[in-house]
């Protein structure tokens, strides 16, 4: 799906280029981690897991850049961003305000090397991405766009990156104006050019480069080096070549075709997650569903909000209406909607009585709640991981009033505490759909059983108290004391009197408290069983030691991902559909190392996944392969070392769905 989506976007882009209505370089995908549930750009990323984000980036980029029509040129240039540790937009806590363009991200080498940088390495080494974007923030005192270790030593020399590096827009200016990294603007130009930034998205370099030349801070050779990468990507895009196959891609054969529309719809089908389904509340049966009331502030969300920011203003059917009400209307004849509250941040509850009345009179109630771009977006972080009081009131009163179990559809990219929702006896089903746009019709396919959900949660769902424990400004992944005050401190004028926060660990890899819903959770309309039929009980770590020794000999900070693939035996798992519905199943493989959760060792880490379709009563076989790196850990200095002992390999998660485990000894 990731590869196919990238391929389709780029083909549409090429078609538009050929009509002189688009350019050929695109600043996508975002491969930062959803390391923090309040981050405003969680909507744009694949997950909180570094391996998954890396696989997403690599597959999307390959699909985007490579066309079978012309394997010698780049179809369209992708850009993995934001490099690196950029996962904060703008927040105010206890009187302290930090924005993404001024923040100096303090990151331990341990977290940098085994979390934040992993997706970017995969983008380069597996995806052959043609562009990287250096981020607004500084990392441990050095602005990303002036950081020669990040841009040159690691990206170019260690990973072998050979594309161009662009700044985020005005990030070069921020080196001088916000980070105050240099004494003069000319020195900032010197810093970004010599670090390896090729493009200034803005005017800062253009306005100050002559001063830098006049002061001999940079030379024409420095400028030529930057231009080399820019003209190289243009050549790879066939800008200077005779007409070729990529120039023949036509809009009428590519844009708004049945294939592209169905691909977008299938994206939501594959990603939606069934979080609760008591007594088989879902799927609904269209023939006898009766009257349906779609209630909540997100009942008409996609058309009016999300698609107007993260997507085209004009889509394939400009007369169509793309929201949950319309999606339900594809299957039910009698559909009404009442918002109850106008939007996710509204404090006006005067509409709740009407919503309750609608719930009482309807045969079936579907609640549409969660967040929207008023809650969190680019430039603005969320302030809470709980429903607003008004939404919580709406959910409870509507669920209490409904005559049969309610279906709650959760629209959000910022995970909210679902404790009360899951506990409510008259909320029979909870379906998480993210924040879709014109592909919202797929929600109807799932709710009415045309397709079965098979998605897995890509973020840990925390209890609401999480937001009071730890500051969003704290970028540490591992649990421990924080240098920042607790966000719920009530004395902003006296920060010294505030209790310091405690980091409970970020993401499933390090979170030590009990989550509301764990990463990797997801239910189905059928029942699956796993059986591990082939897996080594003993693993020889000699190849791991040899890989680490060679990396150390070469003076590298990272092990090469191709070398890490090694020649490890795979884990073979039988996946049996023991229910009565043909369905997809996503098999997740987790590695739980010796000493998990102690001294910075992850609790567990995802190492593989595969989606398969299994007909009712049948069995298919899935093989997931570990890498040599899966038998290592990163220490506090950012160095990898081999780990001997007993490993627990999990398939699925124990809290829901199919699950199996295997124990092996490595030495």
Can you characterise this structure?
The protein is α/β, with parallel strands linked by helices and 667 residues long. The protein folds into 3 domains: 2-251, TIM Barrel; 259-447, Rossmann fold, CATH 3.40.50; 528-666, Sandwich (Immunoglobulin-like). Helix content is 28%, strand content 21%. It is built from 19 helices and 26 strands. The strands form 8 sheets. It has a 6-stranded mixed beta sheet with strand order 9-14-13-12-10-11. A hairpin with a 2-residue loop joins strand 6 and strand 7 (142-143). Helix 1 (2-17) runs parallel beside helix 2 and helix 7 (185-195) packs across helix 8. The mean pLDDT is 96.
List descriptors.
TIM Barrel; alpha/beta; five-stranded mixed sheet; Immunoglobulin-like; 667 residues; 21% strand; six-stranded mixed sheet; 19 helices
Task: Tell me briefly what this model is.
The protein folds into three domains: 2-251, TIM Barrel (Alpha-Beta Barrel), CATH 3.20.20.300; 259-447, 3-Layer(aba) Sandwich (Rossmann fold); 528-666, Immunoglobulins (Immunoglobulin-like).
CATH architecture of the largest domain: Alpha-Beta Barrel
Strand content: 15-25%
CATH domain fold name of the largest domain: TIM Barrel
CATH class of the largest domain: Alpha Beta
Tell me the total number of β-strands. Answer: 26
What about the largest sheet? 6 strands, mixed
Structural class: alpha/beta
CATH superfamily caption of the largest domain:
Glycoside hydrolase, family 3, N-terminal domain
- Structurally, the number of domains stands at 3
Give the overall average pLDDT: 96
Oligomeric form = single chain
Q: What separation lies between the terminal Cα atoms?
A: 38 Å
Rg over alpha carbons: 25 Å
pLDDT < 50 runs, ≥5 residues: none
Number of separate helices: 19
> Considering DSSP H and I runs of 4 or more, what fraction of the residues is helical?
25-40%
Overall shape: it is globular
Query: How would you write the strand order of the largest sheet?
Result: 9-14-13-12-10-11
